[in-house]
Amino acid sequence: MFMQNVDNFVEMFSNRAPKHIFSRIDMRKISSDVLKKAAALVIGAIFTALAVGSPFIAIAMADTRTVILIDAGHGGSDAGVTGTRTGVKESDLNLKVALLLGEYLEGSGYRVVYTRTADVMYGYPGVVGNKKRADMFRRGDIINGAKPAAAVSIHMNFYSSPSRRGAQTFYAKGFPQGQALAEALQKALNEGVNAQCGGRSYSALTAQKYILECSPYPTAIAECGFLSNPLDEANLCDEGYRAMLAGVLRDGIIAFLRANEKPVI
Ligand SMILES: [Zn+2]
Predict the structure, then answer these.
(1) What are the backbone angles phi and psi of residue 66, rounded to the nearest 5°?
(2) Which domains does the chain possess?
(3) pLDDT per residue as tens digits for the range 30-56
(4) Ligand 1 centroid – CA 83 distance (Å)
């Protein structure tokens, strides 16, 4: 039964082979054995996958989930800013919030792509001497490769006056989709974080940053709080607060997807 199916498959394929291309080769004679072996391998692999609970089938099927990109700002030798009281590194907090946000989004059914999941700074072929520039180029490549429905870059803020606090978002001028994402995130942060933690409400602002302009995909920066403010710093160092913050960011992303009629799960 099995080999007969293979024979039928080979016969069908050989008959459909475009004769004008293979005019100098008799496809039926030359490739019959090769085709039989290839077809047996393919059919065998499918049967095996079905027999073992189909993890291979799952891999073979296209992943159609909506992609969200999360960029944990800085990393490696670029720590970003540091907490005034504790000396906590921005790069570490960014990564913690980014991984938590990704976990929540995956729990909601989205496919998450990260620019980094460890304390690293990237290099880039052809860029020597300017590590930050090389790192940003690599992140840009990851965003363009992921083709996300939304991309959010996670950062922590710092200001000369220690009294300033709260979460702020940024987008690039001339990128209306990025602006819509930044505004949805800012609204969620104002309601879910700033109002509850004594911070003031902010409006999404423009910024000239490579990460915001390196792709056509909606991209925003979320500055999650000020490491120059003792209360924000204490909050951001608290695991429970970061979980709340990540939940608010997820809600802001989903609000953007809904408002822009992107596929929402
Ligand atoms: Zn930063």
Answers:
(1) -65, 135
(2) 2-60 (no CATH), 67-259 (3.40.630.40)
(3) 445 555 565 555 555 555 555 555 555
(4) 12
